[in-house]
Amino acid sequence: MAPEPAGRSGERRWPMASAVVVAGVLHQLLPDDFRVSPTWVYPSFLVVLLMVLIVGDPGRIDRQRPWLQVTTGLMVGLITIANGIAAGRLVSGILSEAEFDTPTQLLLIGAVVWLTNVLAFALWFWNVDSGGAAARAAGSVTRPAFVFPEMTMSHYVSPSWYPTFPDYLALSFNTALAFSPTDVAAVRVWAKLVMIVESLISLSLAALVIARAVNIL
């Protein structure tokens, strides 16, 4: 096990928390037919789980407690399920030629689902890679799933550098947009498979939504 680099501190909570809040707000912006019912359940559970994490690990993320990572997984899973329901209803509506008010409405719904999907995968990558944020901060990582450019070009970054949520957000966004890895290499099988799944979801959503929007015109 590699020793902890000098000066390394826990990751700040607010980038991850902001992503969770944005995911919750985006879901509430969807039409009623695409949201989880009752509509108050989803945001309420998100807030409760996020508050549990903040209380359980206040300040920077540096406490390696299994229950904290499980709670994070439950929160990310909730985001994934809620967005999966919205995506399923969107795809079903497109395939069954359901009526949408305007092409703009369809594109906005598709954009919300797509962006939430990016946030969900970013949160999964962040929570699972190398044992989670607290393990990365402690330097107790033995085998990462992703190799970031900073890992191979250490002369450009601080010796205490390690990937934080913005790095995983960029990874997820690039995977969803380019349908393939860009500057980050997946070096474990599960990571490669998850990136394939994200690319397929992104490609399917883009193709179906754009095709139907053009058809409405």
Query: Termini distance?
Result: 59 Å
Mean pLDDT: 90
User: Helical segment tally?
Assistant: 8
Biggest β-sheet strands, sense, barrel: 2 strands, antiparallel
Provide the low-confidence segments as ranges. Answer: none
Tell me how many strands there are: 2
The fraction of residues assigned to DSSP E strands is under 5%
- Count the domains: 1
**Coarse shape:** globular
Rg, alpha carbons: 19 Å
Secondary structure blueprint with pairings:
Layout: H1 14-29, H2 41-56, H3 66-95, H4 103-128, H5 133-138, E1 146-147, H6 149-152, H7 165-178, E2 185-186, H8 189-216
Helix pairs in contact: 1-2, 1-3, 1-4, 2-3, 3-4, 3-8, 4-7, 4-8, 7-8
Explain what the structure shows:
The protein has one domain. It has a two-stranded antiparallel ribbon. The protein is globular and about 55 Å long. The N and C termini lie far apart (59 Å). Helix 1 packs antiparallel against helix 4 and helix 2 packs antiparallel against helix 3. With 217 residues, it is mostly helical.
Task: Summarize the entry for a quick read.
The protein has 217 residues and is mostly helical. The protein has 8 helices and 2 strands. The chain has a two-stranded antiparallel sheet with strand order 1-2.
Any descriptors?
single chain, 217 residues, mainly alpha, 8 helices, globular
